[in-house]
């Protein structure tokens, strides 16, 4: 065991390097950049070899290079965030549609406009139906460990895997990380054995046009593979624990949910703050627990249902917004609890880097416990700021750009909230 | 849990200060979490970084709003940014300046603190002397070690040496040790908060 006090990005880069990727392609975008910077240094120094580091001209090219590399039998890795993820979307669907086991880090960041470099889950959530497996890290240790598991999982089920970690909150946090050792990773992760291979010696074509006669079946196969992943993810996590001696990954992670009347569901780094909040509430006699979802795709319906158990209500804390309806995770959780009679609340929090504090969580959870919470709540919403802009737009036709108006109304930000 | 907030300006090594502090605590077997405030970092713009120290795993990810210690790397922020927000009178305050509390216009404010827990140290001057550049962060960590006792000066030096090499490491170490001695000397005598509150 080698404990180091390092930045999350650095830890992920070290873990990815020990997975022996053969092709890494990258285009820089905050907050992902530190990861591929560290990897490029390892390739340049020869510490990571054999590996080709391809600097590309866009994220679309990054994913396209990953697809090409993977199809020729190379273990391929890339990383992106936010607008970069959106720019590669067409290729993202191709990677999963072709069943290529690429691993990609998404350093979660908001999507513009308005432009915002800070953390939320809008980027990866927009790709939830792209056919990729999506795993969300709660801590930097888990982000590191999930990457090692991701290559194994991807290659076993022939599906690409996104490892999602909160941008800045995790990527730029310096904390204690047990970096996996090379011998351990080698024992856990066998060499990549492709199911399909572009090889001049034995030519095949990959990416045929498929008409109505088989398209449904090919798509169904993608779903069947995700259902295989649902079975495989806990086994991979158990294997990981056997080799590395620590628990990481899996489908869901319940915390103090036994006998809970209220269960808060969330993904990612906010789970730590939630657990601290729930500990305080438990000490004061509140029957409340937390359910972390690690695997959002495939979505573990049965595990969520079992973990929520007999709770009277769930509060789904979401770091993304489905504009026009509300919660994304909520609709998935609701499907898991169908017929259960569990009340559900959606809380949109932490958009664009808005800090999610214990104080706000506590107040919100007490309101939920008393069933005083709105079905759709925006945590810490500055309602007067919204109303002022709505009034402005109502008063005159040429009310101007809304974001600029609201920024001006909001005044200077407290420099450490954000 | 012991929480530290570092205020400074882009280019002064504010984020590095929080990171080095976390490394020093880690070297003592403690849990530590350092993170920046994720603003639009530009040279000269106000920057904030945080560091939490604890004997068990740190799960909390919110910004530090109720710090046990505030470190101010640039005294021009004192009347521009709300650097003292959430700092209790029994907390620790460390300001980088060659001036006195009175000259900083803070004699009344500083007098509210436990005298042995508030210190002004000329970290920029120490850095100029020892490193040849106005980067006060390592010196302030030496001052922090003397003021709070949360980490030893030897751990601060070890963290500096892990990050830097050669003359830069030597200079930063010398600046940290000088600030450590300076703050320790201040703590040994009652603080002088200025003429109206003089000890």
Which short descriptors sum up this protein?
heterodimer, A: 418 residues, alpha/beta, Rossmann fold, 3 domains, seven-stranded mixed β-sheet, six-stranded mixed β-sheet, 15 helices, 42% helix, globular, B: 199 residues, Pyruvate-ferredoxin Oxidoreductase, domain 3, 6 helices, 6 strands, disordered C terminus
Describe the secondary structure blueprint for this structure:
The complex is a heterodimer of chains A (418) and B (199).
Chain A: E1 3-7, H1 8-18, E2 23-26, H2 33-45, E3 52-55, H3 59-71, E4 76-80, H4 82-87, H5 89-97, E5 103-108, H6 122-125, E6 133-136, H7 140-157, E7 161-166, E8 174-178, H8 182-188, H9 215-244, E9 252-255, E10 262-266, H10 270-283, E11 288-293, E12 295-297, H11 301-308, E13 313-318, H12 329-336, E14 343-348, H13 358-369, E15 376-378, H14 383-395, H15 402-410
Parallel strand pairs in A: 2-3, 2-4, 4-5, 5-7, 6-7, 10-11, 10-13, 13-14, 14-15
Antiparallel strand pairs in A: 1-8, 6-12, 9-11
Helix pairs in contact in A: 1-2, 1-7, 3-5, 7-9, 8-9, 10-13, 11-12, 14-15
Chain B: E1 2-9, H1 14-27, E2 31-36, E3 46-54, E4 69-72, E5 92-96, H2 107-111, E6 118-121, H3 123-130, H4 137-148, H5 153-163, H6 166-188
Parallel strand pairs in B: 1-4, 4-5, 5-6
Antiparallel strand pairs in B: 1-3, 2-3
Helix pairs in contact in B: 1-4, 1-5, 3-4, 3-6, 4-5, 4-6, 5-6
Short synopsis of the structure:
The complex is a heterodimer of chains A (418) and B (199). Chain A has helices at residues 8-18, 33-45, 59-71, 82-87, 89-97, 122-125, 140-157, 182-188, 215-244, 270-283, 301-308, 329-336, 358-369, 383-395, 402-410, and strands at 3-7, 23-26, 52-55, 76-80, 103-108, 133-136, 161-166, 174-178, 252-255, 262-266, 288-293, 295-297, 313-318, 343-348, 376-378.
Folded structure, characterized:
The complex is a heterodimer of chains A (418) and B (199). By secondary structure, chain A is α/β, with parallel strands linked by helices. Chain A is 42% helix and 17% strand. In chain A, helix 2 links the parallel strand 2 and strand 3. In chain A, helix 1 crosses helix 2, helix 10 packs across helix 13 and helix 14 packs across helix 15. The longest helix of chain A is centred in the middle third of the chain and has 30 residues. Chain A is globular and about 70 Å long. Chain A starts with a strand and ends in an 8-residue tail after the last helix. The model of chain A has no long low-confidence stretch (mean pLDDT 96). Chain B is 37% helix and 18% strand. Chain B has a 6-stranded mixed β-sheet, with helices on one face. At the A-B interface, strand 1, strand 8 and helix 10 of A face helix 1, strand 2 and strand 3 of B.
């Amino acid at each position: 065991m080698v404990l180091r006090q390092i930045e999350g990005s650095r830890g992920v880069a070290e873990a990815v390097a020990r997975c022996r990727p053969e092709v890494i392609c990258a285009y820089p975008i905050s907050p992902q950049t530190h990861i591929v910077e560290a990897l490029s240094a390892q390739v340049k120094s020869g510490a990571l070899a054999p590996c080709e580091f391809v600097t590309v001209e866009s994220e679309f090219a990054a994913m396209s290079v990953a697809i090409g590399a993977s199809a020729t039998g190379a273990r391929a890795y890339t990383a992106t965030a936010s607008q970069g993820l959106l720019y590669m979307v067409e290729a993202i669907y191709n990677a999963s549609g072709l069943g290529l086991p690429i691993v990609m880090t998404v350093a979660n960041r908001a999507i513009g406009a308005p432009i915002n470099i800070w953390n939320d889950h809008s980027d990866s959530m927009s790709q939830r139906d792209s056919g990729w497996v999506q795993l969300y890290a709660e801590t930097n240790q888990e982000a590191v460990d999930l990457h090692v598991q991701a290559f194994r999982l991807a290659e076993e089920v022939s599906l690409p895997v996104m490892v999602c970690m909160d941008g800045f909150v995790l990527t730029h946090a310096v904390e204690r990380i047990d970096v996996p050792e090379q011998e351990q990773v080698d024992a856990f992760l066998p060499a990549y054995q492709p199911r399909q291979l572009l090889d001049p010696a034995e030519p095949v074509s990959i990416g045929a046009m498929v008409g109505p006669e088989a398209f449904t079946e090919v798509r169904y196969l993608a779903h069947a593979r995700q259902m295989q992943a649902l079975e495989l993810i806990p086994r991979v996590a158990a294997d990981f624990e056997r080799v590395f001696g620590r628990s990481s990954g899996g489908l869901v992670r319940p915390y103090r949910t036994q006998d809970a009347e209220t269960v808060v569901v969330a993904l990612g780094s906010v789970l730590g703050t939630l657990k601290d909040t729930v500990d305080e509430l438990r000490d004061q006699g509140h029957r409340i627990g937390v359910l972390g979802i690690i695997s959002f795709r495939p979505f573990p319906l049965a595990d969520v249902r079992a973990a929520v158990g007999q709770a009277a209500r769930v509060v789904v804390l979401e770091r993304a917004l489905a504009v026009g309806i509300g919660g994304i995770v909520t609709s998935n959780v609701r499907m898991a609890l169908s017929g259960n009679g569990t009340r559900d609340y959606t809380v949109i929090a932490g958009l664009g880097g808005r800090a999610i504090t214990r104080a706000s969580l506590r107040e919100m959870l007490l309101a939920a416990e008393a069933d005083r919470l709105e079905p759709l709540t925006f945590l810490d919403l500055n309602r007067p700021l919204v109303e002022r802009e709505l009034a402005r737009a109502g008063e005159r036709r040429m009310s101007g750009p809304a974001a600029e108006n609201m920024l001006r109304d909001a005044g200077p930000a407290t420099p450490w909230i954000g | 849990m012991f929480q530290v907030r570092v205020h400074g300006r882009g280019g002064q090594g504010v984020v590095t200060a929080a990171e080095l502090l976390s490394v020093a605590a880690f070297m003592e077997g403690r849990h530590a979490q350092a993170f920046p405030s994720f603003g639009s970092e530009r040279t000269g713009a106000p920057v904030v970084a945080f560091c939490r120290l604890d004997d068990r795993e740190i799960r909390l990810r919110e910004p530090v709003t109720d710090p046990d210690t505030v470190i101010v790397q640039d005294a021009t922020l004192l009347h521009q940014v709300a650097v003292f927000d959430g700092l209790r009178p029994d907390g620790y305050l460390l300001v980088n300046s060659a001036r006195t509390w009175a000259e900083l216009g803070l004699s009344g404010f500083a007098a509210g603190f436990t005298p042995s827990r508030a210190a002004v140290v000329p970290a920029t001057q120490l850095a100029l002397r020892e490193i040849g550049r106005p980067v006060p962060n390592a010196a302030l960590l030496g001052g922090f070690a003397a003021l709070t006792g949360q980490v030893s000066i030897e751990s601060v030096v070890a963290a500096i040496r892990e990050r830097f090499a050669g003359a830069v490491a030597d200079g930063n170490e010398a600046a940290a040790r000088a600030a450590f001695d300076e703050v320790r000397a201040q703590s040994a005598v009652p603080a002088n908060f200025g003429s109206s509150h003089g000890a």
